[in-house]
TrEMBL record:
SUPFAM superfamilies: Aminoacid dehydrogenase-like, N-terminal domain, NAD(P)-binding Rossmann-fold domains. This is Valine dehydrogenase (NAD). Residues 151-361 form the Glutamate/phenylalanine/leucine/valine/L-tryptophan dehydrogenase C-terminal domain. It comes from Streptoalloteichus hindustanus. Belongs to the Glu/Leu/Phe/Val dehydrogenases family. The active site is at K88. It comes from the Bacteria. Keywords: NAD, Nucleotide-binding, Oxidoreductase.
Length: 369
């Protein structure tokens, strides 16, 4: 394996922040593949996380995203009760232009070289058909039906976010129904579109936006009652907005959004929504409840484990629906301990990861003795 930029890891990681178990920089000149595979933790099991295909502005930005997303996957999988660690892959480039069969096969060979330490799957910019290609050279993928996987997990992700939103409504307003509530969904791609479907069926008023006109058209063609606004700036300022659901890329909650978002609750599908951790405090000071993204968007990870557990679709759906209970438990713990929901969720996840790591260390020590 070769680094596509030997200065990149140090530039991003620095000298004292080596939190991840392994970071692999992948470069295949013949196909143009440039990718990062980040394994944050395998304390609970193999590192599970999808492969994101995105046009990053720099190699450093790609590495930083892989590090952040893989850490989030460790917490997500721990919070969901899965015996899996956290990892993520990012492929650098515009998927509409750079994606090819040869490039995906090259990516699959890099994943296979890790021998099962990392399990890949669909994410932003990749789909089930892509994983079918990857699976031809790599058996460690969860989304390829042709290889015995579960297919695109977007439906499970959307269901989990919907359940988390219902739990937030119960916590904030005393009822889990979203009927009559105004929900703003930013990003109506694979997950956002399906989330809109759940919300409409529950009787919510839905307002959407997306940078892609075709994504908006697809929603409006299916649900003509949905309102469309020009952009996210307009969406966060909608009068009477009850819930803001960021469902595109990360960093949606920043210093510009926190002071002006009109919603009482923020609960969406996007990973790493907080541009900085202290943005949650800014929201809380205005009475806005932030529901930790990795708690509610774990449905896709749960669905991906069907390839390992052999659960039926019905059993998998039941596990995803329990995100309601998990979310409510996090919000109640936050209240009881006088901390923000993000801190409450982190404590639960970190306790589980640390417990597994300690158990492994004790087992190794016992064998050595």
């Amino acid at each position: 394996m070769s680094s596509f930029d030997r200065a990149t890891p140090h530039a991003v990681l620095g000298s004292d922040s080596f939190e991840h178990e392994q970071v692999v920089l992948c470069h295949d000149p013949s196909t143009g593949l440039k990718a990062v595979i980040a394994i944050h933790s395998t304390a609970l099991g193999p590192a599970l996380g999808g492969a994101r295909f995105h046009a990053y502005a720099s190699d450093e930005e790609a590495v930083a995203d892989a590090l952040s997303l893989s850490r989030g996957m460790s917490y997500k999988n721990a919070m969901a009760g899965l015996d899996l660690g956290g990892g993520k892959a990012v492929i650098v480039g515009d998927p509409a232009r750079a994606k090819s069969e040869a490039l995906l096969l090259a990516f699959g060979r890099f994943v296979a070289s890790l021998g099962g330490r990392y399990l890949t799957g669909c994410d932003v910019g990749t789909d089930e058909a892509d994983m079918d290609v990857v699976a031809r050279v790599c058996r460690w993928t969860t989304c390829s039906r042709t290889a015995g996987g579960t297919g695109d997990p977007s439906g499970a992700t959307a269901l989990g976010v919907f359940q988390g939103m219902r739990a937030a409504a119960h916590h904030r307003w005393g009822t889990s129904s979203l009927r009559g509530r105004t929900i703003g969904v930013a990003g109506v791609g694979k997950v956002g579109h399906l989330l809109v479907e759940h919300l409409v069926h529950d009787g919510a008023r839905v307002v959407v936006t997306d940078v892609r006109a075709e994504a908006v058209r697809r929603v409006v063609d299916t649900f003509p009652e949905v309102t469309v606004v020009a952009d996210t700036e307009a969406l966060i300022r909608v009068e009477g907005l009850d819930v803001y659901a960021p469902c595109a890329l990360g960093g949606a909650l920043d210093d510009a959004v926190a002071p002006v978002v009109t919603a009482e609750v923020v609960c969406g599908a996007a990973n790493n929504q907080l541009a900085r951790p202290d943005v949650e405090q800014q929201l809380a000071e205005r009475g806005v409840l932030y529901v930790p993204d990795y708690v509610v968007n774990a449905g896709g990870a749960i669905a991906a484990t069907r390839v390992l557990t052999g659960d039926s679709p019905q059993q998998c759906a039941a596990k995803v629906e329990r995100i309601f209970d998990t979310t409510l438990a996090v919000l109640e713990r936050a209240n009881a301990e006088g901390v923000l929901p993000g801190a409450a969720a982190d404590r639960i996840a970190e306790q589980r990861i640390a417990g597994a790591a300690n158990a492994r260390a004790e087992e190794r020590a016992s064998r050595a003795g």
